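Sequence in, structure out.
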Amino acid sequence: MTENNKETQAELKERLTDEEYAVTQNAATERPFSGKYDDWWDDGIFVDVVDGTPLFSSTDKYDAGCGWPSFTRPIDDHNLVEEADYKLLRERTEVRSKMLIPSWTCFDDGPTDQGGLRYCINSAALRFVPKADMEAEGYGKYLQLFDN
């Protein structure tokens, strides 16, 4: 799907689960430790549940202990939009997909040896594509992320 071919809200509501819809369309937040991908360690990539944009690789996922999937960096910075968020006592960066879905936050308390950032994501905003399925689903160019 492209930005010019967006699904209507009714179509999204029908396709997404209630939680996926609430998180991606109404800026809801999952309860900590409740999301499917918090403790998910298979090889593959995480894509935007709404439009399939590749967002994060399992190679950059780590256990931050916060209760939400956390990553040290996105697959491609160009797939994200960042803006300052002052809702909490400290400044943080709200990160959105190109579809402007407000589903995660970027903090500066990530592993210092990997850049120091922590992208904290709601599982409901993501769909996991296993490494074995990436080529068939059109994400073959990202298989290089798993070359060690």
